Amino acid sequence: MNAASASPVPSSIAAFRRPARFAVAGGAATLVHWLCMSVMLAAGSGAHVATTAGAMAGAAANYPLQHRHAFASNAAHRRALPRYLASCALAWLANLLLFAVLHGPADWPPALAQAGTSGAVAALNYLLYARMVFDEATDAQTPA
């Protein structure tokens, strides 16, 4: 059977594999974030400090999961890691600002504010990872 006569169903299933792997890897990193945040809140830290520390812990767990598992990237770490750190800085800022709005003026409890924030930041991260961090086409265009 040649590629032209192949069924479109496997292609459409394949289109959901990367987002599914991203969700699993990101979910594991989010659990690290939430665990750290919960421990810090229980220890008496402020919600903003706790979510910031949680985001940093989650980011550290997330890079190898996304690089190897979700994106199965061949991008060299010397190029992908700085891009990942830049995307983390942007995601951290988005996390902090959105959490501040939801927990502050919107008066959502910390867990609900973080749930809303995590969903929005996950969508941002997927776009950044796919187009900037683990995109081998971008990697090939970057001078060595």
Descriptors for this entry?
GtrA/DPMS transmembrane domain-containing protein; mainly alpha; transmembrane; GtrA_DPMS_TM; elongated; 144 residues; 81% helix; single chain; membrane; GtrA_CellWall_Glycosyl; 5 helices; 0% strand
Write a concise synopsis of the structure shown:
The protein is an all-alpha fold and 144 residues long. Helix content is 81%, strand content 0%.
Record the SSE blueprint.
Elements: H1 8-42, H2 47-70, H3 77-103, H4 110-133, H5 136-141
Helix pairs in contact: 1-2, 2-3, 3-4
Overview of this structure, please?
The chain has 144 residues and is mainly alpha-helical. It has one domain. 81% of the residues lie in helices and 0% in strands. It is built from five helices and no strands. It has helices spanning 8-42, 47-70, 77-103, 110-133, 136-141. Helix 1 runs antiparallel to helix 2 (47-70). It is elongated, with a radius of gyration of 18 Å. The model has no long low-confidence stretch (mean pLDDT 86).
Approximately how much helix is present in the residues?
Answer: over 70%
Query: How many DSSP H or I helices?
Result: 5
Structural class computed from helices and strand pairing: mainly alpha
Unreliable spans are: none
* Alpha-carbon distance between the two ends: 41 Å
